[in-house]
């Protein structure tokens, strides 16, 4: 008889691949819920239930996930998993592959503390499996209530929690503390200065007033870039290029589809010149529905002398593998690895963020 596989690992792998493929939330949730429901089950009971067909009597386990478990226990790669692997996307070209290999971490990610779908621990372990050396946790700030943004009190609690998680993670990997802070209408940052100073990495993004007229948006962004606490300017145009379902599986998922949205209007040359002057990195956001900034603006930021951060803006573990998309666009624009801050080690990155002021 074939040796049994780990059915929980197979369920989680399927969920990861579905997240990476930006599949609908309900599909992802089915496999993550089943993995969670079965994780605490004694091995003997799991095997017995798979044999007598009673796995579906457990909350969170359906017909499809039960079939995958039975196939795993029989030593077979589940058919569902095999099909996902067989239909994975095309390979990257040599330049994008080299850039992806140079990345040591991801500077923009979310957990279920705000609008992400998974606990911090799951996000971290997925990053470990992808070969990262660090993951910057950047949950939202208070004004973004729709995304359960963290108040100062909740952020302080999160910092304590991250310290506990780091103590239990594999040696050589660490979670870096951070935030995706809202850039407010007047260009100020939506969190207490003393807390921003404590964080390892601060990403700042515009989430409201995206249709503001050009001069107002430019002033807003310039003020934010000049703030010594801001390390990375996130998804700079705010555009949405796709209406595909967003694969968020947490409280922030309201079952909606992401709508297309035009770019915000601002003086890109002035903003990128300010980023270069203040040594603020420009994010290349890897989310398929964002692809932000567009390639023409990546080239202008490169010409302006800016640094970059190739981030996933991941809201689920499988989305952490979306860096390939950002690397592909960066490589097409000629962005060299030595201009990308997350090719640095965690120590180099934190030294840079803390010494920029």
From TrEMBL:
This is DNA polymerase/3'-5' exonuclease PolX. It holds the Pfam family HHH_8. Keywords: Exonuclease, Hydrolase, Nuclease. One of its GO terms (molecular function) is zinc ion binding. Gene3D superfamilies: DNA polymerase beta, N-terminal domain-like (1.10.150.110), Metal-dependent hydrolases (3.20.20.140). It comes from Micromonospora saelicesensis. GO terms for cellular component: cytosol. SMART domains: POLIIIAc (SM00481). Residues 105-185 form the Polymerase/histidinol phosphatase N-terminal domain. InterPro entries: DNA_pol_lamdba_lyase_dom_sf (IPR027421), HHH_MUS81 (IPR010996), PHP_dom (IPR004013), PHP_phosphatase (IPR050243), Pol/His_phosphatase_N (IPR003141), Pol/histidinol_Pase-like (IPR016195), PolX_PHP (IPR047967), UCP036978_PHPhdr (IPR017078). The keyword Nuclease applies.
């Amino acid at each position: 008889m074939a040796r049994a596989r780990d059915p929980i690992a197979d369920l989680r792998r399927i969920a990861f691949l579905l997240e990476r493929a930006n599949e609908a939330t309900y599909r992802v949730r089915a496999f993550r819920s089943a993995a969670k429901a079965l994780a605490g089950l004694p091995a003997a009971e799991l095997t017995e239930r798979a044999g007598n067909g009673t796995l579906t009597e457990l909350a969170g386990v359906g017909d499809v996930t039960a079939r995958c478990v039975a196939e795993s226990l029989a030593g077979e790669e589940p058919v569902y998993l095999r099909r996902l692997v067989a239909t994975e996307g095309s390979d990257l070209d040599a330049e994008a592959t080299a850039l992806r290999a140079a990345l040591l971490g991801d500077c923009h990610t979310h957990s279920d503390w705000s609008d992400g779908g998974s606990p911090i621990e799951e996000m971290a372990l997925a990053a470990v499996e992808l070969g990262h050396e660090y993951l910057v946790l950047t949950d939202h700030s208070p004004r973004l209530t729709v995304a359960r943004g963290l108040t100062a009190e909740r952020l302080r609690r999160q910092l304590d929690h991250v310290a506990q998680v780091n103590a239990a993670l594999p040696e050589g990997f660490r979670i870096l503390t951070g935030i995706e802070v809202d850039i407010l209408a007047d260009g100020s940052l939506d969190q207490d200065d003393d807390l921003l100073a404590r964080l390892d990495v601060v990403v700042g993004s515009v989430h409201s007033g995206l249709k503001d007229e050009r001069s107002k948006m430019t002033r807003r962004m310039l003020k934010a870039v000049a703030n010594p606490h801001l390390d990375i300017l996130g998804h700079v145009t705010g555009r949405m290029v796709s209406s595909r379902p967003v694969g968020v599986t947490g409280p922030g998922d309201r079952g909606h589809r992401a709508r297309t949205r035009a770019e915000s209007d601002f003086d890109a040359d002035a903003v990128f010149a300010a980023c270069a002057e203040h040594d603020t990195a420009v994010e290349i956001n890897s989310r398929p529905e964002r692809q932000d900034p567009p390639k023409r603006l990546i080239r202008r930021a490169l010409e302006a002398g800016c640094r970059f951060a190739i981030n996933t803006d991941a809201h689920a573990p499988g989305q952490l593998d979306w860096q390939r998309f950002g690397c592909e666009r960066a490589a097409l624009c000629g962005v060299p690895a030595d201009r990308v801050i997350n090719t640095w080690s965690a120590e180099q990155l934190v030294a840079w963020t803390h010494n920029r002021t």
